[in-house]
Amino acid sequence: MNTSVKLGNQIPTQSVILPFTKSLYKNAIENYEKSGRKAQEWQVELAKDLFAVNDDGLWVHTKFGYSIPRRNGKTELIVIREIQGLLNGEQILHTAHRTTTSHSSWERVLKLLDKAGIKYKSLKAVGRERIDIPETGGRVEFRTRTSTGGLGEGFDLLVIDEAQEYTTDQESALKYVVTDSDNPQTIFCGTPPTPLSSGTVFVNFRNSVLEGKTENAGWAEWSVEDQSDIHDRELWYKTNPSLGTIFTERSIQDEVGSDEVDFNIQRLGLWIKYNQKSAISENEWNELKVHSLPVFQGQLYVGIKYGNDGANVAMSVAVKTLSNHVFVESIDCQSVRNGNSWIVKFLRSADIKQVVIDGASGQNILASEMKDFRLKPPILPTVKEVINANSMWEQGIYQQSICHNDQPSLTLVVTNTAKRNIGSSGGFGYKSQFDDVDISLMDSALLAHWACANDKPKQKQQVRY
Predict the structure, then answer these.
(1) pLDDT in tens for each of the 465 residues of the chain?
(2) What whole-number distance in Å separates Cα of residue 178 and Cα of residue 180?
(3) Domains of the chain and any CATH numbers
(4) For the whole model, what pTM was predicted?
């Protein structure tokens, strides 16, 4: 390798790798390089993680995902893993979104086996190609993914190529194919999804691993965190480990066009933060919309949230309906510079059962003002109670016990949210995906919902004789 040539960053920009002391990667790299190919440094380093084993000789990462911008040779690591799997006698299922992709992967493995002098048998059937090594009993089947493919069959290794297109229906059909294996492993490899990508499994897997919500799983990616300058060549090198080996700066220069978002996704590895990644989807929220106002019963519950940055304060209300749902509606979100008079005015005029105020930047001041006006003392929730409020909001949406009138401002916030960690025991809250959209509006609504849903009617005491 010519060391005078500038090379792309060989280390993932973000990764989660479980600790290990032993890896079987050396044999895999040696067998791959018998073909005359030379593994790049980033491929060797990722192979260490992929082939890591515990004290029982089992894979440390039973699930491993990685994302690299296009044309960096991401499937070469899969080839390394599959060739070694064939030599180890593993049963492997390689799946792809397109028939052309699965076929070209089959051809690539055949070509390297030929060059390495490894004897094999192959079956060429479009969409169902196969390679066997009689000596070891190892086999790889190449399939185009469907919602039924793989049912009733057992494998040791499941490869999800073009993982950005992997759908939940396909996952339901495929994830159990490795269940019976003594040492199963599933590998997801792809690029960040575009707004047109149909899959959600890759996004959800990435989020779960990065948030520490999975066991036995690893992740690695080359990416920019936010939309960036497409002309910044340093970012080209930061996010493309094969720049300088497989392709050049001139190649990327030819890709630069008017679609900056597409370039950020395809070349800089950006994971877009649009509705498809929202913790609460547009469809889920739309399912809760009422077409006419329901019949309300009981008093109002008010949620007030002072933003974490201290800039705004939002207020929402919740009320029970005749059908035992909780109806939520936002009143307003204003700058704290406007003071609390608009809040107090509402609290004095409405028929209110309970007020909940969260946000250290303003809750005590407002509570004091409420006392001055002889209003009922509010609830100032603990961290544990806020976590519970967030969880109840999520459950209310899933169970469709919440309803709303589709306020544009509230809908915008709700359908563009991501989860964030709260506390030290696995609790979560929400954050906005856009800097100019204040999550406080939804936080106030979920506090009102929490107060309303938690307030059970007092049962009349029965006296029996």
Answers:
(1) 455 679 999 999 999 999 999 999 999 999 999 999 999 999 999 999 999 999 999 999 999 999 999 999 999 999 999 999 999 999 999 999 888 888 999 999 999 999 999 999 999 887 789 999 999 999 999 999 876 666 568 999 999 999 999 988 889 889 899 999 999 999 999 999 876 677 889 999 999 999 999 999 999 999 999 889 999 999 999 999 999 999 999 999 999 988 888 899 999 999 976 544 567 888 889 999 999 999 999 999 999 999 988 889 999 999 999 999 999 999 999 999 999 999 999 999 999 999 999 998 899 999 999 999 999 999 999 999 999 999 999 999 988 999 999 999 999 999 988 888 776 666 788 988 777 788 999 999 999 999 999 987 655 555 554
(2) 6
(3) 14-272 (3.40.50.300), 282-454 (3.30.420.240)
(4) 0.62
